[in-house]
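Slide 14.
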Amino acid sequence: MQKIPISFAQKGMVLAKEVFQRGSASTLPMCGKGVVLTEVLIERMIRLEIQTLSVEGHPVELPGELSLEEQLDRLDRRFQKVENEPRMIRIKEMFKKSFMKSREGGV
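Slide 15: predicted structure.
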């Protein structure tokens, strides 16, 4: 799942979370999880001043965002001094799995 600015939304992306109208007291979402975005739907969200969306996978590289390779490299460097500690290795693997999972279905 990736949270993106509405300006990065593209038709065919799938919502990972419900979208609520900005400033609305309504508890009903305007779009539900699993909805496939269309150009018309994206335009409507822009008119309703929706700022961000959570979409499935990791479909876009955002400015300033680290690539998966960069994230894994930094992770290796951070855990370099504790390579012989089993608990720390397990923690490192948990982070690695989290990074990988966040990129599933992405570019």
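Speaker note: DSSP finds three helices and two strands in the chain.
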